[in-house]
Write a structure and sequence with these properties.
Elements: E1 91-94, E2 97-100, H1 159-162, E3 169-170, E4 182-183, H2 187-216, E5 227-234, H3 240-249, H4 256-262, E6 271-277, H5 281-289, E7 296-298, H6 305-316, H7 322-329, E8 350-352, H8 359-376, H9 379-385, H10 390-403, H11 410-422, H12 430-437, H13 473-480, E9 489-494, E10 497-501, H14 504-520
Antiparallel strand pairs: 1-2, 3-4, 5-6, 7-8, 9-10
Helix pairs in contact: 3-4, 4-5, 10-11, 10-13
Amino acid sequence: MSDYGQGPAPRPWHPDDPLYGDPYGSYDGTYASHDPYADGAPQYPQQAPQQQYGPQQYGPQQYGPQQYGQYPQQPHIPQQPQWDTQPQPQVQAYGGWETAQAGQAGYVTPPADPYGSPAHPYRPSGYAPQPAPGQTAEWHAPVDEPGPFDEPDEPETHPFFTDAPGSDDYDDDPDGKRPGKKKRRSGCAVLLAFVVLGGVIGGGGYVGYRYYENHIAAAPDYVGGGMGSVTVDVPNGATLAQIGNILKQNGVVKSVEAFTAAAAGTSIQGGSYTLHRQMSAASAVALMTNGSAQNALVIPEGWRATQVYAALDTYLGLAPGTSAAAAKSANLGLPSYAGGNPEGFLYPSRYSIGKSTKPADALTQMVSQAQSEFASDNLQAQAQAVGKSPYEIIVIASLIQAEAQQPQDFGKVSRVIYNRLQQQMALGFDSTINYAKGRSTLHTTTADTQYPSPYNTYLHKGLPPGPIDNPGHQAIEAALNPTAGNWLYFVTVKPGDTRFTDSAAVQQQNVEAFNQYQQEHGGQ
């Protein structure tokens, strides 16, 4: 603690001074005056050195009636500061009463406890001031009087704490005594801060979610086989991503990513498909690849144009003859050498056709497929290499398709046609008579061989005027590449047993074997 020491003479006493009479000195055991203006103010002298008191002097034996008139051994009861030039009376304290010694000029009332404590540790409880001479002393209950630094127990009314008008303060002027730039403590600023903070957190969360969704989480997908039905058209040559987009737009799959993941490594043909809404991607891929969902019209090899028209009418739910009429009136894209006849150019394949497809559009698709196949076989150049026109090759291929029963027979049948044409022999094919008569049978009578038709190859040498069916790829290849041999005759005695020969006598024996088999098995 500070040692106040000696200093200039004390200032005059003023009764209104709130710091007057600080009763506590330093804690070194001396009665030193505590000058409230010690920090930066003149120092006031200590009046008289007092006896030092140690801890051993505090005991219960020091307090008793016989010691009245002496100071009780109390710790740190400092001498009051001197506010005038006259010596102050010495005061004795006992049991809360203090009296002036005889012969002293006056009585000085000790100041109130600056700490406002009802029972200060250095003062006996029940303390009350000694009355002036001539007055009756009255005992007063201890009063909790506020000290000079105590604040009144009143509700807070400052605008800063109540957020009332006038709560603004000024920069560089905490006392508010000169104007400056106002700083407004407003709830709007706090709200704005929370909004900005929420936006930052929300934005970061959205970015994180998108990253998780795109790079970590599985692609959105439906569960199960779906419900209802929907028809979708897939263009030829469409990629998996393009197919996935078509399916998503039609409500079949939930996401393109789920579909492409399920279809990875598979090949999906273009065409029309009947699927369900809200299918899992795996279910959609399964239906599209096993053929059960594809709205397909299958044209087998060797079908005649009349058979194709009838099948198309049935598939589209149209009246019989509708497709045949469309074939005559519509521009199907036939090559000029076809002479407007679709026979031989309705290429046998699997066609994905929607139920709302027009018959002319379906027939045009078949002709387009034929043209594509002919181009891939280099038909123009290869036909010229064997001394035939492209149209003659298609006619020969249609004969092979109708007569050959086994794959290994295609090249041999082609060789028989070439050998007979070379030797100016009539082809004599039953298939041409059946085409002319609009029938399909294995039994041809002698009367049938006399049927008047340019397609009757028993009556007319050379090739018929046009194809008798729609040949497939194998028949076209055989027409361009006949198997080497000298065969002039052949007959299918029974299924899987086609016999070739260059001898007329052997051919007659093979024909008798065929007739016997037909009789035994009820053939016509």
